[in-house]
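Here is one chain, start to finish.
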Amino acid sequence: MKDVVLVTGGCQGFGKEIAGLLSNKYQVVILSRNKKELEKTSKELKCDMYVCDISDVKQVQSSVDYIKNKYGRLDVLINNAAIWKTGELDSNSFNDIAEISLINIVGTMNMTKACIPLMKKENKGKIINIISIDALEGKSERSLYVSTKWAQAGFTNSMRKELEKYNIAVIGIYPGLMNTSLFKNAGKEKDLSNAMDPKEAARIIEFTLSLDNIVLEQVVFRNLHF
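Its structure:
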């Protein structure tokens, strides 16, 4: 049986490119709260799917139960789902703060927590957290997004130490600007002329998974000409 790979935020952008590249070799299951787009992408990529809002604990557990019942195992979790918000802090609403924290931080933690028992059962696994190069530097008018990415980085580093005794690798991916719908989904226009092609960036995830006895703990990359 093929290794089972779960990709959150898998119906568009970087998550879709990752799922598409991995679908030939792995049994890929993509998650998204957008049912219509999820069904369309699942059909296009010929991969499995489950509707899930990662900020909802019940939906998170239900998606993992679905994988457990159907496949009996989970080999790789790719925490890719995220939202983006910009603007000076006092221009963001309290709801903005809650929403981005629930999805980018709490959602990542909850999905990881729900998946760990399946990996412990097999005494192996890989958890790949798609973070951002913004987790390595502060940026003006981006305090909400940057803060969540710093939190993801700290979570990744801690989980790496916590899970290594179970033969579970935790990998932090820190990409620079990519040409995805992240900004459009937030209702913002952004110059993406120098952004990376997510198809090319997805090859880094494929390579990371191909390694057996070597773990790339942190991978930082950006456009050469940015």
